[in-house]
Hints:
4 helices, 0% strand, 89 residues, mainly alpha, globular, Helix Hairpins
Amino acid sequence: MYLTKEVKSEIFAKHGKSAQDTGSPEGQIALFTYRINHLTQHLKKNHKDYNTERSLVKLVGKRKALLDYLKKTEIERYRNIIAELGIRK
């Protein structure tokens, strides 16, 4: 499933403050997680697609940086987003 405008606004509405709130860390983490899951499925079928693999690694790094920021600044928001998305243990 492609990332359409409707899917994006749905992700931001669910995890951000509103559908237009694209800057909140929670919304960005949720969007990155959606894209990471999509790329992971793609790479299971196309294991020699190295450009996509590189993009996946970059996305994981961006998500990790946002999670580290959230963990450092507001631990409760960090715990909530981790639980909602099921990212870590």
